[in-house]
Design a protein that fits this description.
Keywords: Flavoprotein, FMN, Oxidoreductase. One of its GO terms (molecular function) is FMN binding. Its cofactor is FMN. This is 2-hydroxy-acid oxidase. By secondary structure, this protein is α/β, with parallel strands linked by helices. It has a single domain, classed as TIM Barrel, CATH 3.20.20. Helices cover 41% and strands 12% of the residues. It has an 8-stranded parallel beta sheet with strand order 4-11-10-9-8-7-6-5. Strands 1-12 form a two-stranded antiparallel sheet. Strand 8, helix 8 and strand 9 form a beta-alpha-beta unit. The radius of gyration is 18 Å and the shape is globular. The structure holds flavin mononucleotide (FMN). Flavin mononucleotide binds next to loops.
Length: 340
């Protein structure tokens, strides 16, 4: 099924999500619980719009080729530079059709089956992370689990559970404390300094597991991530859910990717909705992208097959764009192929 068909099939079953044809943050605005963004809800809209203003440079005078969309990340070859982003607490935000365990199981299996990778989220209930790690472990570690910036003891316990699952990487959404539904709750979540992050990175490295910091929006933040010993970052504002009034991820990506050079894997998310957007993100310096909300729609509209269909659609659109812009491999997608 196409994404439009998946959205049609999912509509009416997703709580506060309207399963729009284009997931651009406009219909859900600031709807939390739900898939919306914090405050005015403008950040999610800004994320989407910023990709649309990156213009592509066509170049169709080249030898014919079949574009190669594959990419190697954290030692693993993916068939396309797109991964399914983490989602915590699916019931709270999308209603009762899926519980978290079933959602993760369906999503992770389908993503891995299509040669991609799924990321899992975290939330207040300990069972969310435990279930996510069980699902990743059941797939021989084929997934990346994300832990929120809880207090030290809670992180230590969750990290132990995560590393036992042997995931491709462990991530921390370092911006997670800004989520409205985590305020004043138990366990508490909050900011973390470089030294505590260095401890987490060390524990991951002792288990031969890369550590990724998700929620980096400035060069300064990227430099701190490097100092903490992270192996990768996700340029992300959590889809606008943690702080109103911030830049779009497309706007800050070029300066962040220039600042880190080849020292870190650079991932990005927020409003990426098509293979054309994936091309834009790679041209602006990302090694790969995450997409979250559209994959929830894909699961609700078509289960595991929906996830595979959406990945296939994105891969086709990316390959098409690569052919039209003269890029044979993803490493040919450089910043001279776009203007912004
Ligand atoms: C309902 C919902 C729950 C989310 N839960 C998590 C989470 O547990 N951990 C995390 O790192 N990001 C979480 N995110 C953020 C997404 O992974 C992603 O960073 C954000 O939605 C931007 O990507 P998108 O515009 O493609 O959705 C969540 C997003 C939504 C909408």
């Amino acid at each position: 099924m196409s994404y439009a068909e998946l959205a049609e099939a999912a509509r009416g079953q997703m709580g506060n999500c309207k399963a729009c044809r284009v997931c651009d943050g406009r219909a859900c605005r600031n709807c939390i619980p739900g898939p919306g963004a914090k405050g005015t809800g403008m950040v999610a809209i800004r994320n989407y719009d910023a990709w649309q203003s990156v213009m592509l440079h066509m170049d169709t005078i080249h030898e014919p080729y079949l574009p190669d969309t594959s990419v190697t990340l954290f030692g693993r070859k993916l068939s396309l530079p797109v991964m399914v982003g983490p989602l915590g607490d699916v019931n709270r935000h999308y209603g009762p059709k899926y519980d978290m365990e079933t959602y993760n199981d369906v999503m992770l299996r389908a993503a891995a089956g299509a040669g991609s990778l799924g990321w899992t989220g975290d939330g207040l209930a300990a069972s969310l992370h435990e279930g996510a790690c069980r699902a990743i472990s059941g797939l021989d570690g084929c997934g990346i689990c994300t832990i929120k910036p809880w207090s030290k003891d809670v992180v230590r316990d969750k990290l132990r559970i995560a590393l036992t699952a042997h995931p491709v990487a462990v991530a921390m959404d370092i911006d997670g404390a800004g989520l409205p539904f985590l305020k004043g709750q138990q366990p508490p979540a909050g900011a973390k300094g470089v030294s505590q992050l260095r401890e987490i990175a060390k524990a991951c490295h002792a288990a031969d597991t890369p550590f990724v910091l998700k929620g980096i929006m400035t060069e300064r933040g990227a430099e701190k991530a490097m100092k903490a010993g992270a192996d990768g970052i996700v340029v992300s504002n959590h889809g606008g859910r943690v702080q109103d009034g911030v830049e779009a991820t497309a706007t800050v990506l070029p300066e962040i990717s220039r600042a880190v050079g080849d020292d870190l894997v650079v991932l990005v998310d927020g409003g990426i909705r098509s293979g054309v957007d994936v091309f834009r993100a790679l041209a602006l310096g990302a090694n790969a992208v995450l997409m979250c909300r559209p994959f929830v729609v894909a699961v609700y509209g078509g289960g595991g097959q929906g996830v595979m269909d959406l990945l296939a659609q994105l891969q086709g659109e990316l390959a098409d764009t690569m052919e039209m812009c003269g890029a044979e491999t993803v490493s040919d997608i450089t910043d001279d192929l776009v203007s912004w």
